[in-house]
Write a structure and sequence with these properties.
This protein is of the alpha/beta class and 313 residues long. It has eleven helices and 14 strands. It has a ten-stranded mixed β-sheet, sandwiched between helices. The chain has a four-stranded mixed β-sheet with strand order 3-2-6-7. Strand 12 (221-227) and strand 13 (233-239) form a beta hairpin. The protein is globular, with a radius of gyration of 18 Å. The two termini are 30 Å apart. The mean pLDDT is 96. Bound molecules: alpha-D-ribofuranose. Residues 8, 10, 12, 37-39, 42, 93, 104, 106, 140, 249-250, 252-253, 289 line the site of alpha-D-ribofuranose.
Length: 313
């Protein structure tokens, strides 16, 4: 079950506040901390914790803390293609957390400093991408790099976060495309208020040619849809267990990482969504990102508490 994650690395600066500030407002932090994050590194750690053999392709600055590599290696994430770029600082994310919700602003730095495609084609990255059971990408790196990785992937999991306009050529390579409610809305132009409506929107993406779609709906759970023969699209709704959420930062990344490992392990999409749901539910119960990601044993135990999925067509 080999997983290659291509994506961002950020130093997260996290302020816990009583409530998120309104525009123009200043609030005082209750506590502040820094930890390693970025959707790419989060998903790589989550996939490794969930039992995957993981390699991580990323770009950092020369300013990066030496502890960054050690921390990722301690989670058994392979770093053969984590490269330092000149004249760029490692990405930084400014995160405000209140009542389990968060707001994030990212200063991309080195995450946007990738070689031109002809040069990328000469690097070891290509072989890694081609040999992986599953390649995972998100959108905190340039779209051209995402498209390049997609062209070399046997199976692509694209987490369309943060939301942006995506070319059809890229969408048609996703299996699955993973989105949250606002990203689903950005891609379809409609808003879903229920799991059935979210399935309907995911189904519309499948009818446009996407092989499969997973839409996460926060504490409500998630839906998935995939193309088939009769009916043309099928899927289901997976409710999430009720848990005490203390910090949702990076919980979506826990979901994506565990989903990728389950798919690389040969599970069907519905079973992989259940595995990812258990991982996400565990992640929100502990502050931070990497430190909150559950092991395969913890996920398997939590699977017993996951409600049965309901088929949708
Ligand atoms: O998804 C959570 C992540 O988004 C944080 O770790 C932050 O770095 C931003 O990339």
């Amino acid at each position: 079950m080999s997983v290659v994650v291509l994506g961002s690395v950020n130093q997260d600066i996290v302020c816990e506040v009583e409530r998120l500030p309104r525009p123009g407002e200043t609030v005082l932090a209750l506590r502040a901390r820094t930890n390693l994050g970025g959707k790419g590194s989060n998903q790589a750690v989550a996939a490794a914790q969930a039992g995957g053999r993981v390699e991580f392709i990323a770009r950092i600055g020369r300013d990066a803390d030496p502890g960054l590599r050690k921390s990722l290696r301690d989670y058994a994430v392979g770093l053969a293609t984590l490269r330092e770029v000149e004249d760029a600082r490692t990405g930084t994310a400014y995160i405000t957390v209140a009542d389990g919700e968060n707001q994030i602003v990212v200063d991309s730095g080195a995450n946007f400093c990738w070689e031109p495609e002809p040069e990328l084609d000469t690097l070891n990255e290509v072989e890694l991408l081609r040999s992986a059971d599953v390649v995972v990408v998100q959108l905190e790196v340039p779209l051209r790099v995402v498209a390049w990785a997609a062209r070399h992937a046997r199976r692509l999991v694209l987490n369309a976060a943060p939301a942006t306009v995506l070319p059809d050529e890229l969408l048609l390579r996703c299996h699955p495309l993973v989105v949250n409610e606002s990203e689903l809305s950005a891609l379809t132009g409609s808003t879903a208020r229920t799991p059935e409506q979210a399935f309907h929107l995911a189904r519309s993406l499948c009818l446009r040619g996407v092989a499969s779609v997973v839409a996460t709906l926060g504490a409500t759970g998630s839906v998935w849809a995939h193309r088939c023969d009769v009916p043309p699209v099928a899927g289901g709704y997976q409710a999430a267990p009720q848990v005490n959420s203390v910090d949702s930062t990076g919980a979506g990344d826990a979901f994506v990482g565990a989903l990728a490992t389950a798919l690389a392990d040969g599970r069907q999409l519905g079973a992989a969504v259940a595995y990812a749901t258990a991982a996400g539910a565990l992640a929100v119960q502990t502050p931070g990102t990497h430190a909150s990601y559950p092991t395969a044993d913890q996920i398997r135990t939590a699977l017993a508490t996951i409600p049965a999925a309901r088929p949708l067509v």
